[in-house]
Amino acid sequence: MSEIIPNRKIIHIDMDAFFASVEQMDNPDLRGKPIAVGGAENRGVVAAASYEARKFGVRSALSGVLAKKYCPDLIFVRPRFERYKEISNKIRKIFYEYTDLVEPLSLDEAYLDVTINKKGNPSATLLAQEIRLRILNEVGLTASAGISVNKFVAKIASDYNKPNGQKTVNPDEVIPFLEVLPIRKFYGVGKVTTEKMYKLGVFTGLELKSKSLEFLEKHFGKSGSFYYNVVRGIHNGEVKSDRITKSVAAEHTFDINLSSEIFMIEQLENIANSLEKRLKKHHVAGKTVTLKIKYSDFTQQTRSKTLPYFISDKGLILETVKELLYQERMKDSVRLLGISLSNLNTEEKKTVVVQLKFAF
Ligand code: DCP
Ligand code: CA
Ligand code: CA
């Protein structure tokens, strides 16, 4: 019997005309008007165009000169990246209230895995609606969302009812959705690949599906198997959270306060055990071991030791913890013990790469 893998629930959220909408929100004079962020009448390119400007064919990457030609009333606005970043952070804060599995793709969009979510809401569609409403109420901007079983389909779906709309592609709709999808709309298929696909007679998902894996690999190399799979609804890419975990901890509050170190060791063994499981699950190791002790009078103590190497093994963790335990006498009775590991090997390493040029 084959194992039934439950469908994941992925939401892709993308802000509408992001930079332009921020400018219109902050400056009421710009509302309802065709504006272009970036560019200028005689130089540069448009970064973002308001929906009013898009009616004239103004869009991102268009030169300022052409933009002005298409839309003589176009107002050029200088970008304010700090402001966009600030809004981006606000939006992300909202996302994290729903799940920790948030993968930002750029300032204005992210994938959220809400298969299991902090609200205990089984409907990803309703969650997307709620998140969009919160962005509108708390930030003042509209967003669009795509909801489906994987990142690939969710991303494509978020464009469907843009602006200020959302689209759910249910598990049983994924295949038919992809079959009728124009090939240029497949995420990851850029201009060059689209042209190549056209030359091979592939214009829709259905035509893509008619091609064998060998055929696609022959023409598209490594990407061949990607195309082969996604059109069959197979895309297992995980939502990669960018949250840098600073520490991993496990602790336990006791029903009866502990007064002897012998009992504490026994408890610490259990705690080290759960900590090790957590570390293994997240594939991390750390250098700093911290022992947390809460006494019955509610005072708290922490004792730490940093090792010269990374550990994740419960034996090594316990060894360090014991050292910390005996380092100093305990007060009479202990109600909670905890162990945490920090200085993790996942923390971003800011290395400066210096390129040396040698004269011959
Ligand atoms: N951006 C940019 N240069 C580009 C494309 C985009 O600087 N070539 C910036 C400006 C956009 C923001 O990134 O506002 C988000 O890009 P999107 O592609 O998501 O476009 P918009 O949010 O502007 O519009 P849409 O409503 O289509 O998502
Ligand atoms: Ca956008
Ligand atoms: Ca975007």
TrEMBL record:
Pfam hit, one: IMS_HHH
CDD domains documented for this protein: PolY_Pol_IV_kappa
Gene Ontology CC: one annotated term: cytosol
EC number, UniProt record: 2.7.7.7
Coiled coil, from the record: none
Location in or out of the cell: Cytoplasm
GO biological process: DNA repair; DNA-templated DNA replication; error-prone translesion synthesis; SOS response
Domain UmuC: 10-190
Single GO MF annotation: magnesium ion binding
EC top class named in words: transferase
Annotated catalytic residues: E109
Top-rank lineage group of the source organism: Bacteria
Residues annotated for Mg(2+) binding in this entry: D14, D108
Cofactor: Mg(2+)
Oligomeric form and interacting partners: Monomer.
NCBIfam families hit by this protein: PRK02406.1, PRK14133.1
PANTHER family reported in the protein's UniProt record: DNA POLYMERASE KAPPA, DNA REPAIR POLYMERASE UMUC / TRANSFERASE FAMILY MEMBER
Protein name per the record: DNA polymerase IV
